[in-house]
DNA sequence: TATTGTTATACTCTATAACTATA
DNA sequence: TATAGTTATAGAGTATAACAATA
């Protein structure tokens, strides 16, 4: 009688990645939620503008692999909080140029400093060499599929 | 004038982990959803019973770090699909022993074979040595926090 | 009183289709 | 016709509190 090789759940990459992602996001999530009442897509949009400067919604969609409906709602929420402004683009009036306000910039700076602190905690137990490889490998996995989100 | 070090979003571990986890889960998720109409917590519960044998709901909660309300609903769904049975425990009648039915076992075997195939695709571009380290590092990150879920 | 498990509820997240306006 | 962005809606995921039954 043949028995199938036993499946070892804790080694299954999609499972392991989800557990690690949830654990790693926890602290930062609580920070931006309680401190600024922001949701996940909101901080992501804010960080894209903070890191890359002026962008259109579509450019954020492409860079972050987030669906346009999610970006649209996040932009509206950030606008209500006075963290960004929309500017018209003369050449193409369908496009809106998004920019952080001074307040948005300040929030970005606080959040990115917090992000650095959380990350420092996370990588505390990892060898620097491991960390580089980890990032490379995660990036490789993330890019295996580039679909709508 | 001092400028803060620029924050590099694609290197931020919680972000990178989430992108990788989503991309990696995609294929398998579609498989168990379209083929068996199962949800995320359902396959996780099924796999715990398939991998470890008879368990109580509480034991699944602890092993998988899933909140008891989610496990409760997943167990009810799997029971409706005739994939598991509940048995009373004589010593403590609050506890229910959960076991896969023959059908549940068959589904587990099909899904775990599918999981192996998806994982093989994922790790295709990784050096075997990298993969071991990756698993170790992910496990380390996942265990930094063990909270309710 | 504490524990196992269920139910109710609300909020966040995701996915899709239909829409407006501009091109 | 196609593109940028919005709105509506439903389904999935998460979190919490209140509850029943048993210990």
- CATH class value of chain A: Mainly Alpha
Which stretches of chain A are low in confidence, meaning pLDDT under 50 for 5 or more residues running? none
3D shape of chain A? globular
Q: Please trace the helix and strand order of chain A, writing H or E for each element.
A: HHEHHEEHH
Task: Describe this entry's structure for a reader.
The structure is a homodimer of 149-residue chains. By secondary structure, chain A is mainly α. The first copy, chain A, has helices spanning 13-36, 40-52, 57-64, 68-80, 102-122, 128-144; strands at residues 55-56, 84-88, 96-100. Chain A is 64% helix and 8% strand. Chain A has a three-stranded antiparallel sheet. In chain A, strand 2 (84-88) and strand 3 (96-100) form a beta hairpin. The mean pLDDT of chain A is 92. The interface between A and B is large, with 58 and 58 residues. The first copy, chain A, binds a DNA duplex (23 and 23 nucleotides) through residues 39-41, 56-58, 67-73, 75-76, 92-96, 148-149.
Please describe the topology of this protein:
Two copies of one chain form a homodimer.
Chain A: H1 13-36, H2 40-52, E1 55-56, H3 57-64, H4 68-80, E2 84-88, E3 96-100, H5 102-122, H6 128-144
Antiparallel strand pairs in A: 1-3, 2-3
Chain A binds a DNA duplex (23 and 23 nucleotides) through residues 39-41, 56-58, 67-73, 75-76, 92-96, 148-149.
